[in-house]
Amino acid sequence: KNEVEQSPQNLTAQEGEFITINCSYSVGISALHWLQQHPGGGIVSLFMLSSGKKKHGRLIATINIQEKHSSLHITASHPRDSAVYICAVRSNQFYFGTGTSLTVIP
Amino acid sequence: GAVVSQHPSRVICKSGTSVKIECRSLDFQATTMFWYRQFPKQSLMLMATSNEGSKATYEQGVEKDKFLINHASLTLSTLTVTSAHPEDSSFYICSASTGFWADTQYFGPGTRLTVL
Question: Across the strands, what pairs with A22?
């Protein structure tokens, strides 16, 4: 059983579509992170959340601590958003989701 | 933005040899550095956390004698895979922050290790 579950595993969208990636976790956490990994392997930390909502450009991340759920939204998606998005939580140790592979088609 | 480099980006070695991977924070002082490994089509696995000047803290199941971590300065941490075997072949990634993991992480580009 994975402590962090992401859905969907794979996602293909047309350019301009609104995208949602979900993350559910089963442990108590102090923080949740959304990471973006590009095809070459490079990773960028997008958000760190402990409550509420954060926005950065076209990206929005929300977290519901009671429901142990977080979502990452991408508005007006673009081909350059194509990447693997990883949800990670800090509990007594770190747990990572298996990632959501996003492909945005022009 | 903050930049973290890793060297080498790719290494192929024979079984039984040791391989050292460097992780450097180029424009900031990294109090804490983290080492991860990633198998193909799988997510990241945190291996250890290192704070400058002190011993690394290893995650459960990671052999500290196998994966030696040194964080001798605020800009450099090294991971040495000792007596490497084919099962150690993986993508190794470091990240650095000015504080603990709750702070923003800056990731290195990764090192692809292949052990023959």
Answer: A7, A71
Which of B46, B109, B112 lies at the smallest CB-CB distance from A94? Answer: B46
- pLDDT for A42: 79
pLDDT score of A82 more than 80: yes
Q: Which tens digit of pLDDT belongs to each residue from B53-95?
A: 888 999 888 999 999 999 888 899 999 999 999 999 999 999 9
Judged by DSSP in three states, B108 sits in: coil
| Chain A contact present for B46, CB below 8 A | yes
Q: Do A40 and B109 touch (CB under 8 A)?
A: yes
CB pairs under 8 A between A and B: 50
More confident residue, A59 or B1: A59
Beta bridge partners of A85: A36, A100
CA distance B111 to B81: 12
**Cis previous bond, A8, omega within 30:** yes
